Amino acid sequence: MRYVVYALAVALAILHQDFWYWDDTTLVFGFLPVGLAYHCLFSLCAATVWALAVIFAWPSTIEDQVERELHKMEGGEEPK
Amino acid sequence: MTALMVIVFYLLLLLGLGVASSRFFKGTAADYFVASHSIGPFLLLMSIFGTTMTAFAMVGSTAKAYTTGIGVYGLMASWSGLIHSAVFFLIGIKLWAIGKRNGYVTQIQFFRARFESEAIGYFLFPILVGLVIPYLLVGIIGAGRVITPITIGSFPNAFEATRGGIPPWLTGLSISLVVLIYVFFGGLRGAVWANTFQTIVFMTTGVIAFYLISTRLGGAAVASERVLENAPQLAAREGLIGKGEFLTYCFVPLSVGMFPHLFQHWLTAKSAKTFRLTVIAHPVFIMIVWLPCILIGIWAAGVQIKVPNPNAVLGRMVSEYIHREWLSGLLGAGVLAAIMSSLDSQFMCLGTIFTNDVVIHHFGEKRFNDRQRVLMARLFIVAIVTFTYLLSLLEAPLVFDLGVWCFSGFASLFPLVFAAVYWRGVTKAGAIASILATAAVWGVLFYRDMILGHGSEEELLIYGMMPVTIIFASSLVSLVVVSLFTKPPSKATIDKFFLEKVSRA
What we know:
The complex is a heterodimer of chains A (80) and B (505). Chain A is mainly alpha-helical and 80 residues long. Chain A has one domain (2-73). Chain A has helices at 2-15, 34-56, 60-73, and strands at 27-28, 32-33. In chain A, strands 1-2 form a two-stranded antiparallel sheet. The model of chain A has no long low-confidence stretch (mean pLDDT 88). Chain B has 505 residues and is mainly α. Chain B has one domain: Sodium/glucose cotransporter (Up-down Bundle). Chain B is built from 21 helices and no strands. Chain B has helices spanning 2-22, 29-34, 41-52, 55-68, 71-102, 107-114, 119-150, 168-216, 220-230, 243-248, 260-268, 276-302, 313-321, 325-363, 370-392, 399-412, 414-422, 428-452, 467-484, 491-497, 499-504. Chains A and B meet through helix 1, strand 2, helix 2 and helix 3 of A and helix 5, helix 9, helix 10, helix 12 and helix 21 of B.
């Protein structure tokens, strides 16, 4: 799943270059220029991708390893 | 006058918050500088977001949209939504682990240890301070430009040149003093509390301003139709932003990886989990602030508002379309909140790196007591703020462009931190070469654009690309090539910085 999340982030970076709306002045919802609407949607997609990253690709092993190490240094037993 | 009173009341409220947070101050240097590692996820999100969104986001984005159109959102806001969180995710967590294991507080401590070099700290210190100064400058200039039109008529006899509005020099002076006072009282905890409060204030007032201005313009649809009638080019990007420019703006948000105050947050956070909320919410928060500003900027062009300097567009729109003085004052306070929430963290961070990485590093741990350390940090902060304030009195460049130059410098140092946490083979010589290459190329291009070009509205492009592309490439190539031919760090250092090695031991 981690690689899927990374692939989604790369796909978003590519989709940022929306040359298809470059000279389009159409208004979405009657007030939002389509080039701006697209990039707002992009921001929401970015938040979604990073939410997936936090859920499925968070490097918990790093946290666990550091906590275990610090616990040992303080003289405690290694937590299971 | 009512608008001014609301703004003054807000500033007094902030001072009160600084005093309140000082009641929790334990009197130690550690508590003053890192607030005893006690910042939770919500405060961290608000603090990081508040610090990142300065006058650049509110005053600068509105001004730039007024001249360059909707593409400004894609240049900075949507790229930042993707890349800031990527940096938090890929770099922030690694830095947290290294900081936690080795007890580092500042960026320079980290790099000195990683590259086994005292000298690197002395190279980095002036460069980091030199890059933070434009960041502070953006805030002080932006504040001045917004408050003048909002307070027109307050003192007609005293300030004739600004038609009775508070002149920029006085606004800059006032907010610098207010931030200095609450930071001095509360240290990092005071800054984080004030940041959280101010982030809530500027996000709320931004949405209110957007609603009121759009209503006064006859609704958002009518306002946008007027853009299509009078300035249709601003509703698209053709002829205003090049495709190479749009693409290479992606390098600019990498600056978050090297901002000293964010670096410090990562090194000293209570837990890596506290970053989760920031990683997810950051792109949405950016959108909430930037979208209204971009629309207000293009609407200003649509209704053919004329301003002597685009930096004044936001203040002019507020004064033109919001006729209740107390509301204008509230919105002015909101803009100041965005600006001051950046200044406080920057002030704190400068004081911390000066005390820890220059003074204590040079004279030793035992030479100064806690009280003396805090005093030295404060004196250094006052010196930098005074210098920046004096710079702000010179002719003001476009806030957006000055901000981009500042971010470009930090972004070009990004290869350094990336290599430090991912590449065992990066060397001290490679790191120093990268820092020097960044400083030299940034200095030359900045001089060409902002000094020789007098910070003109036209952006400096090199073969259609942003200057950051060239500076970043110089930094990266120097780092890699020199590292490949010089002596790598010792095994002991690698073990300190790379977790996998420790787990196998």
